[in-house]
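ARCHIVE CARD
CATEGORY: sequence design from structure
SOURCE FIELD: tokenized fold
FIELD CONTENT:
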């Protein structure tokens, strides 16, 4: 049995606080006394993208990355994701039975898509670090470079000739995610950190970096998403029925069938409700609650409908030679925490499959 990947996010935070001297001292203590590299002079670089253009680039790259999870046949046409990143996908987010079938989202993959961007970023970076040793990379060097990157200035150009071959490889992988943008001049090449890279220094509890919400859901379960993003549309399809999509508006509804599909894929009612609350449109975000109570209550009720019967692998025993053997077997199963049901009159019992080996050994000793 393959264990589920841990989707909990480590609360290891690269502090981004004032005053600036504290940040400098923190960096010096972590880097062995070496100051972060300086950006390139503006007279060497060609026209750098504005902060707005850089933000649009980061969003586009990140969404292409996530779309590859949802539909590799569609997202794969416009993106070239490195093998390092693909290995991270395979670590629990995607599964593939054989080469003839396309990869499919796992239960953890569905849950990952409903995380906010900051939590998703931390998960991917954590898996990237975990996967480093398999690529022959020292994880300490990788963490040190990611720490340095978080201290760079968004929108400034940094010379790729001043970094090692390993760091250049890391920069290429991070450009797939939209954390940096690569540019080439006549003689020099450089990378430009985006807001995603500097967000590595922001706590998961910090809400200032989160994007403006876009979802309005009404008491009749109608859903309106004011977005032009294809990613937003695909994420909504995970738990809602999308009826049509206009240039800047997605219209749909939440119903029992769409939620049952989500629950069967491993998404919980609380994850759906949290996603709706975190992405509530500013017009409804200030309301308490931002998602109508009848909607949240019904989502939980529909999930409980599927959980009325709990399946537990078990084994049935009967035809005991005597009452004493039956009672001894019941006591043994009860002691191991595996007794599910017993019928003293007919000498029948049901025990969990987890203690099958122990029960066999016990009954064999009783026969001797």
């Amino acid at each position: 049995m393959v264990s589920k990947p841990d989707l909990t996010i480590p609360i290891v935070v690269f502090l981004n606080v004032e005053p600036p001297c504290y940040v400098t001292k923190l960096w010096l203590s972590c880097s062995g006394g070496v100051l972060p590299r300086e950006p390139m002079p503006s007279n060497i670089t060609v026209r750098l993208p504005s902060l707005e253009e850089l933000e649009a680039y980061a969003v586009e790259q990140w969404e292409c990355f996530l779309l590859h999870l949802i539909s590799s046949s569609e997202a794969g046409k416009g993106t070239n994701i490195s093998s390092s990143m693909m290995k991270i996908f395979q670590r629990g987010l995607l599964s593939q039975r054989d080469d003839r079938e396309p990869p499919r989202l796992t239960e953890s993959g569905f849950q990952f898509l409903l995380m906010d961007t900051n939590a998703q970023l931390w998960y991917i970076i954590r898996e990237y670090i975990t996967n480093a040793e398999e690529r022959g990379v020292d994880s300490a060097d990788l963490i040190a470079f990611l720490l340095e990157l978080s201290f760079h200035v968004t929108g400034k150009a940094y010379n790729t000739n001043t970094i090692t071959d390993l760091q250049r490889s890391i920069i290429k992988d991070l450009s797939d995610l939209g954390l940096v943008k690569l540019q080439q001049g006549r003689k020099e090449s450089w990378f430009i950190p985006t807001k995603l890279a500097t967000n590595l220094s922001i706590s998961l509890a910090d809400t200032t970096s989160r994007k403006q919400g876009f979802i309005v859901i009404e008491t009749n379960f109608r859903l309106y998403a004011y977005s032009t993003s294809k990613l937003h549309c695909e994420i909504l399809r995970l738990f809602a029925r999308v009826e049509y999509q206009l240039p800047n508006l997605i219209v749909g509804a939440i119903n029992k069938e769409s939620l049952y599909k989500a629950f069967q894929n491993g998404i919980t009612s609380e994850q759906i409700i949290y996603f709706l609350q975190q992405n509530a449109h500013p017009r409804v975000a200030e309301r308490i609650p931002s998602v109508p109570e009848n909607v949240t209550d019904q989502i939980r009720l529909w999930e409980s409908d599927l959980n009325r019967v709990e399946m537990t692998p078990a084994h049935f025993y009967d035809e005991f030679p005597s009452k004493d053997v039956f009672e001894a077997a019941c006591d043994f199963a009860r002691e191991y925490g595996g007794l599910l049901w017993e019928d003293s009159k007919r000498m029948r019992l049901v025990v969990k499959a987890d203690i099958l080996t122990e029960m066999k050994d016990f009954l064999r000793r009783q026969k001797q």
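CARD ANNOTATION: Residues 8-29, 31-35, 73-78 have pLDDT under 50 and may be disordered. The longest strand covers residues 241-246.
SHELF: design records, drawer C
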